[in-house]
Structures are given as structure tokens and as C-alpha cells.
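Q: Here's a chain of 470 amino acids. Please give me its 3D structure as C-alpha cells.
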Amino acid sequence: MCDMMPASKPAEKIGKMKKLRRTLSESFRSIAFKKEDSGFDEICFTKMSTRSCQGTDSVIKPLDTIPEDKKVRVHRTQSGFDPFEKPASQVKRVHSENNACISAKSSSSGKESPKLRRHSSPSSPTSPKFGKADSYEKLEKLGEGSYATVYKGKSKVNGKLVALKVIRLQEEEGTPFTAIREASLLKGLKHSNIVLLHDIIHTKETLTLVFEYVHTDLCQYMDRHPGGLHPDNVKLFLFQLLRGLSYIHQRYILHRDLKPQNLLIGDTGELKLADFGLARAKSVPSHTYSNEVVTLWYRPPDVLLGSTDYSTCLDMWGVGCIFIEMIQGVAAFPGMKDIQDQLERIFLVLGTPSEDTWPSVSSLPHFKPDRFTVYSAKKLRQAWNKLGYVDHAEELASRFLQCFPKNRLSAQAALNQEYFSNLPPRLWELQDMSSIFTVPNVKLQTESGDSIQVCARRNSHGKASSGSKH
């Protein structure tokens, strides 16, 4: 039969328990600070916040950032864990961790040891937090589209400039699918040549996507430097564009709306793919997609003719158009009327397609041979003379601008073309999040009209670039 506690001595028993608890706690505090106590540093830095033993920021690491296998122990400690619920060996470890870390923080700062609070947070309830609308201040409107308005803003969390894409929500229609698509895709893309999505804020009236702030885009940059860009700068911009596209194409994502307005340019010349509202994650095997994609001037002939079965080659046509526009200073195929006019401008340079040059072209919905004038293909430099002034530029452009989609060069293959052969080899070794401008001597050349002087770099032949336009 089990021993029973006399009913007349509960208060005495509780008093002994409290006394023992205090004694244990004081003993563990003194033991934890002895130098021979190996394992203190490891316990302090792995079980508690990575900053708590340094006397900075928070004492307890927020639960949502702690690995699953360590959450149980920290949660108990924060919640006032009772040492008498566990064997003495476990009690000692928990108390030594808590008391040693707290005392170390107190002694290093000269302040009173902070008290542990249940589920404590390093920030006060009133401080700005990510995911909250009032954590960002709107500074000025940058632009407005059919379903969203973009503002320049400032984060109250860290003081950095941001771009706020405010998407208006209609109660009867819900969140626009383009916004959902853009947010879901960008959350998983981390690359120096892809715009970074910082935060998402959802209210009843709006969905706000918070992006890193980039001060201009390629369209505005070319407007400030008419007549074509410096050839060295074209090469750096194109390299970055291909680098970003290679990254998303390897993840089976199509951008589907490449144009200069959607390529952001930072202060140093860093180019970033932006506006993924029309982007799609392409699964395998392929599905069919809408042919109402890509701004008309940058839309490939297969899509113009009604094809809905396309792949990464869709984006590569846009790369060719942008490449020529940067060199020549004018749009490659600036259709002024409709799809028919756009196709005529393409066929005038590349030749009117046939079954011989483009297998199965006659099966496309909008291909009617009698509707198009029959043109023979020309050399690209006949249409855009500046291609002939830059080594290997015409050759590379012709590999992008192929009417037959399967003949177009991929982004990854394009990075290894002869056109880029005089760039530093280290550019091909960079990590995804490393900018090309971290490589020594890689920098933009001075464009005409620029007030900022950029140091000339030496090319592969050892001659200094002058910075003048060619």
C-alpha cells in the first residue's frame, strides 16, 4: 500500500519545496560561470537566442525562427517551466542555460537582468512590423496600371526605400489572379538579377506587394541616352538579363512579358527582371497557354500567329528585340496598327515563313499564306546597321530572332557565346545572389549626357575603353 502524506502538514511540505528550489537555482547560477564548466558557450548560443550572450537585442529567439527539433525546450523555458516536473539531470541543464545567459547579459551591460516573459517578443507591441500596412510610408506615386498603383515608399522597420505595388481588390471579383501569380512566384525567386519581394500586406481593400526600390528602368535609361547605348554597357545589361532568365527558366518559369519597362536598372547598373504578373510556372509535360501575352512589339511570330503551345523560347525572342533596341536606339519591330502589321515588319527582315523554313507553320490558327507578302530573309545589319560595328553582335541577335521557336538560343547557351568572350571569367562563377559588379573592373561606361564619370576599364586587348559612344 502506498504511503500517504498526512493531511496536517501540507504547508510544511510546500515550504521545503520552495526552499529546495531556491537553493538549486543559486547553485546552478554559480556553477554556470565557472570556467571549467565546458559546454557553456555551446548551450548559450544554440539553445537561446544567437544574440542573447552578446548583450544585444533580444533575450529569447522568436519561436517561428527556431528549428522544429529545438522548439519544445525553448517553449517550456519561456512558459515558466517547473523543474520538479523533470528528473534532476534535466532540471540542472535548463536552469544553467537560462541563468547563465541572463547573468552574462546583465554583467556585460551593467544593467539589471531582464525577466523572462511568457512568449516574449524582441519588439514592443507598437513597433513597426513586417506584414503591416502602417509599417510603410508612401512618398510619391511612380505609376498606375489597370489594376495596380506603384508608389515609392519607405520602410519604418529598417528605414530602407521600397516600391509599393498596391493592387485594388474588388469585393465581387476577389484578388486579381495576376497578383496572386506574381506574389507566389516571386516568393521563391532569390537572384541578384530578379527584383526582390520584401513583404506582402493583405487588407480588405488592397493587396500590397513590397519590393526593393530600384530607381529607373531600361526604357527610361534608353530615353536618356538616345541613339543607342555604349556597346560595353549593352553587353553588361544583356549578360544580366540572360543570367536572370537562365535562373527562372531552369525552374520552369516563363516571364512572358519581357520589355524594357520591366527591366529595372539600379544605381550601379544592376539589371533586375520585374513585373511577373504574366509569368507562368511551366510544368512538364507542357500545357497550352494564352496567346494574349507579351507587349506587341516584343511578341514572337509564333504567338502572333495564334500558338498556345510554347516554352522558354517565348522569352528569348523578347531578348533579341531588346538587344537590338539597346544597340540601335530604336525598337526592332515597332508595329503601329495591329497583329498583321507586326507580322509584316518581322517578315520583312527575317523572311516570310513556309513549311521549309518553319515546320508546321501552316497549322497555326492565324497563318494564311495569301495574307502576307512574300519576303526573303536579309542580314540583320541591313535593317540595323549598328550591329555591324560590334563584334559578334549580329551573330548573337540572329540566334535569338528565329521565326521557328525551336531554333532560338536558350538563355544558358547564350551566356557562353563568343559575344561575351572578353568579359572576366569570374562572372560565370558567381553565386545567384552576387551582383556582377562585385567582380573587379566590371562597371558601366559613361554614356553621353551622363554627369557621373565612370573609370574606363581595359578590354581583352589591354586597351583602355574611352567611354565615348561608337
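Q: Can you summarize the key feature?
A: The domain at 133-212 is CATH 3.30.200.20 (Phosphorylase Kinase; domain 1).
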